[in-house]
Amino acid sequence: MSDTKAEADRQKAIRAVEAMFERYRKLADLRPHDHIDFDREVMNNLKIIDAGLDGSVSYELFMSPSFSNLNDVMHGGAAAVIFDMATTTALCPIARPASWEFMGGVTRTLNISYLKAVPIGITVLIRSKVVGVGKQMAMIRGKMTSLNEKVVYCTVEHHKVNTPVLEKHREVRVKWDDEFERDWLGKEAKAKI
C-alpha cells in the first residue's frame, strides 16, 4: 500500500471515530443540563492519536482527580468506563449499515486485569483493537500503558452484542453520516451490477 493510501485510510478511520464523539456530544447536549452521563468525563477527555480501518484506535488520557479513589490512584470502576468507551470506538472504522453503528451495541462482558496502580496526574496511552467481529458479536482487546509503553497498568477483553441504533440517535446527524452513507450506498449499487 502506498504511503498516500495508508494516510488516507488512517484519516478516514480517525474521522469514523471522531464521529462517535461528535454524535455523543450532540446527544449529551440534548439532555437536561443537570443530567450528567456516567461516561461524559471519559468522552470529553479521550484524545484520539491514531486509528485504523482494521478496527484499531489509540488515545491519550489525562488521569484527572475525577478518576481517583481514596488511595489517589485510578478507581477500578473508572477503568471500566474508560475501557468501555475506548474499546467500543474501535468498532467505528469497521461499522457497516445496521452493523456496529453508533455506540457499537451493548457490553456482554468487560474483563479487566489490573496489573499496576495508575497514578492520578499522569497521562496514559490506551490502545484498542477489534480481534473478532461478526453480525451479532464482537471482541475487542485493549491496554492502558505509560506513554512510552514500558509500564502496562491494565488490560481488557471486551465482548459486545450488536444492537440497532436508537432512532432518536440516528436523527442527530454529524458530518461523517454523509461520507458513511455515500460509501455504503455506492458499494450496494456496485454489488447489484
UniProtKB/TrEMBL annotation:
Family that this chain belongs to: Belongs to the thioesterase PaaI family.
This protein's name: Thioesterase domain-containing protein
GO function term, MF aspect, one: fatty acyl-CoA hydrolase activity
Lineage top rank: taxon: Eukaryota
InterPro entries listed in its UniProt record: ACOT13, HotDog_dom_sf, Thioestr_dom
Chain ranges of the Thioesterase domain: 73-151
